[in-house]
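Lecture notes, unit on binding sites. The following record was shown on slide 14. It pairs a sequence with 2-(butylsulfanyl)adenosine.
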Amino acid sequence: RRVGAPPQSTFPKHTHAVPMLSLDNAISDDELREWEERLVRIAGEDVRHAGYSAELKIDGAAVSLTYEDGILVTGATRGNGTQGEDVTPNLRTVRDVPLRLRGKKPPRRVEVRGEIYYPFDLFERMNEELVRRGEKVFANPRNAASGSLRLLDSSVTATRPLRFFGYGIVATDGAPLTCTLQSELLDLLEEWGVPVAPHRRRCPSLNEVFAWAHRLENEIRSTLNFAIDGGVVKVDAIAVQTDLGVVGGREPRWAIARKFAPDIVETRLLEIRVNVGRTGALNPYAVLQPVEIGGTTVTYATLHNEDLIVRKDLRIGDLVQVKRAGEVIPQVIGPVPTPGTRREREWRMPNRCPVCRTPVVRHEGEAMHFCPNVACPGRQLESIRHFASKGAMDIQGLGESRVEQLVQAGLVHDVADLYLLEAEQLTTLEGFADRSAEQLVAAIDASRSQPLSRLLFALGIRHVGAAAAELLARRFRTMASLRAAGEEEIGAVHGIGEVIAQSVAEFFRDQVARALIDKLAVRKLTMDEPDAAA
Ligand code: IVH
């Protein structure tokens, strides 16, 4: 039965029987050669006779499917590699995922590992549909795949044309598989009825791998209806894989991702806009003539600061080179010289904050310009958005557009105001039904019990990232004792440097910050860290 399970409120955690690993990268033939040299040093000349399995690296969402006596019993996301989410009802709706393995005698218990992906053409169609309905579009097929996989209502997932390719088998009942090669293992998957990505190849030596990788980048890639972010090269002989083992419990030595060189394209720089960050930092960014790079459309690119724009001599209207490599935010490399054309004037940071019109400042020796107005709506918006975000207080349903709505309606000026919101106030805003209003209030309420570490990070204290927040919370346990600590005591915490200590101490001296903390305490936020043992 593929559909029909009732909607869930959240996903159960799933601990992988064997961790789901990640891969080291090589971006050139030379790096592949160095990799092989390393393997030979570790496992000897056997490596050179083991051969390689060259496969597409599907750019989707990794999942693990557990089969018992050939029947699909559990499907989980990769998560952090050790623990993911049990999304079985959603995975059941994916047609490529067999509910029952074909073949006479499947192992008693086996995990099939692979990648869920969203085909390009259907991705475009879905985004067009989302635009028509006025909903948020997905940035790329990978986000669409993992987003669709994590929908709480599997009947919605069933409407998304997700696909699946298997690339690995993990026997979890101790019984060995009869295959001796990774390439045979892929054949076995196909026999079981699991789709395997096309263009795979068994290569006797690295020379064949090089030829394959070049064909992949220059010919095959553009013909595919799904995103890949390179190839994966695996030592083919499973016995040699076992000899080579895993580095640091995370990356197998016997496999490596062969990434493509970063994509560079040319497009027009239409505009330079400035965004106000939560610390007041003014971040210039480029608005580009939309252009496709490696399968995704790029419209914005970061420009960092004024100096960088001047150094690169970027002017509005220029033809520019833009680069996007993997996950990173697109970057503008520089203008393409076009002699004989007239260009705009040099770009300068505006004198006033683009949101609140306060004169901007630039501190001695710093590259960034700042809006010094703590009450700047732009800063407020960013600090509330950060406060609610996933790594911080994780308030479900309080995304960027919702925050903007609340600030614009004057319902929220700082993060403490969130805790006074009532459902009736929200229902007066556009797009809120009774149910969604109640859900948001409940989500805000639930965030009261987030531990001190999250709260500290959520407050957006300069230089205090999630890791530093965790160290501080573990050492001081309560907001009160951290607040009472001096700069020296804070700096004495292992892992906390001078810059962070200074910034934290400064934060607790600031009148506005102190008042905010007091308000949050009155509004019953937890403000302490549970025992590490708990
Ligand atoms: S092998 C054993 N093979 O890439 C090491 N992974 O960076 C790891 N991926 O999240 C898996 N295509 O989901 C392997 N043919 C392929 C792959 C592949 C895509 C993903 C995988 C993982 C990531 C590792």
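Take-home: The chain has a mean pLDDT of 91.
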